[in-house]
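Ticket 4471: requesting a sanity check on a complex prediction with FAM. Repro inputs:
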Amino acid sequence: MDNLREGIQNHIIELQLEIDNIFARGRNSVVSEVTVGQIYGGMRGLVALACNTSYVDPYSGLYIGKYTTNEFSDKLPEEIFFLLSTGKFPDKESLADFQNDLNKRAKVPQYTWDVLRSLPKDTHPMTMLSLGILSMENESVFKKEYRKGLQKADYWKYTLEDAMNILAKLPELAAGIYRIRFGDGNLISYDSNLNWSGNLAHMLGVNNDEGFADLMRLYLVLHCDHEGGNVSAFTSRVVNSALSDLYYAVSAGLNGLAGPLHGLANQECLRFILKIHDKFGDDPDEEVLRAYILDVLNSGKVIPGYGHAVLRVTDPRFTAFMKFGEANCANNHCFKIAKKLFSVVPDILMHYKEGKVANPWPNVDAMSGSLLHNYGLNEFDFYTVLFGVSRVMGFCAQNILALGLGQPIIRPKSVTNKWVIDKFDEN
Ligand code: FAM
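Returned structure tokens:
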């Protein structure tokens, strides 16, 4: 992985130069004001973090580095990790070198399986994933080197070692969790001739169809990162900023992803589609669908898969999944219903309660579950694990770069109600 290490080193130098320039133009310039509403409202919209791995534009969606979703959605996850952490796609030789390195580190230790197999049978797969990563913390190279006395400038290098060890083991770990939790508990062996996502598809043992392997590739690419302020990425960075090693930080980020307002939302979408299928069959009439959506809204519920905190257009990741569905499973009943919802829901949400829904368009979750279901991956509780496997790439890249740039421990200031009241009285 020499090329990856060199790529990151160069990227850190470039980013540091940019930051030096920014500071020269005004280190104390004000870019954002904090309202009382934001203090009590989850800091929504507050500009308070720098993250150079990815950016979400309200109108053009997710960028990884300088590339739009359309420009990276046909790549391999390995290429995406390279892009997240170096700002560039790898050439052929760098990609092969990186993949060889992952192959060498792929084996999950026996003690991790012992931990996972000792859990109650109905443990949530996200608990198993988080615990699986944490169980390997004793292997942290960063931790060992730090104890010996590590220079600050080298923190990122040993964090990269940890990242490689974690990323390499994720396909075997995630697939093993699936087979222990939902299958007969027998694990399928890693195949070093396959790539990262190909191995995940193979070891899950759900479907040998090439389309399924390609769906795993696309799924792992599209969920890789979403800026630095979302619950899981931010949590992971906060934990790592205390120099807790990457095993702690990745496990912590996954714990955030496991929440129903974050990564767990995707399973709700498929549940919604299956409910529509149960009620109205394979090909519901648009008018019937429209009436049903209004009923759901009038009962005070949200339409899963629609709306977004940042986006104001159809999520390009939804569009990429839709394109995949058209090419691979156009006649699948869930896909057809998801597609029909796309032609009905935005118009309803646009006019709902005088336009209070800021974004009536579909997000990434509106389509992904239908595609997984098409290939026989029907266990909803596992979907967030796939999201997690992908998102770990973002956690790792964000932490490596932040350490490379010497970012300090994160410690925003909190205040009491009294402090806020006194502030009002002062003004
Ligand atoms: N159906 C019904 N009402 C909706 C709605 C939807 N899909 N999306 C937003 N609204 C309502 C929202 O509940 C709020 O109503 P109240 O003022 O009564 O609370 C109002 O519209 C304004 O909300 P907003 O500013 O448009 O959205 P937020 O930024 O507050 O929330 C979401 C964004 C994604 C939480 C919200 O759109 C939602 O609940 N969507 C459905 C669930 C979903 O798809 N979640 C997955 C999100 C995905 F991108 C992810 O992170 N994995």
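Notes from triage: The longest strand covers residues 54-57. Leaving this open until the requester confirms.
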